[in-house]
Amino acid sequence: TYTDLRLEIQKELEDFEIFGKKIFNVYLNETEPPEGSNAWDQCLDKVKECDFFIALVNGNSGWNGNTKGIG
Q1: Residue 11 belongs to what H/E stretch?
Q2: I need a labelling partner for 41 at 20 to 30 A (CA). Which of 4, 31, 63, 65 fits?
Q3: What pTM does this model have?
Q4: pLDDT in 10s for each residue of the chain, 71 residues
Q5: Which of 42, 70, 67 is nearest to 57 (CA)?
Q6: How far apart are alpha carbons 34 and 10 in whole angstroms?
């Protein structure tokens, strides 16, 4: 699933080291509990906190509250 792919990419990036130091902290909305009912604002807050942003989007938008991933 798309969630599995993003989890794999997350692990690879977070395990990557330069000069023995891990440099990436990857945020995935699938792995975070919802904070309130507005997922859009929650994601935008995370974007504002980051130094570098990459979005992997499958073309389907939305949030279903399912903590097991939506594919």
Answers
A1: helix 2-15
A2: 4
A3: 0.60
A4: 777 888 999 999 999 999 999 999 888 877 777 676 677 788 888 889 988 888 777 776 665 555 555 54
A5: 70
A6: 19
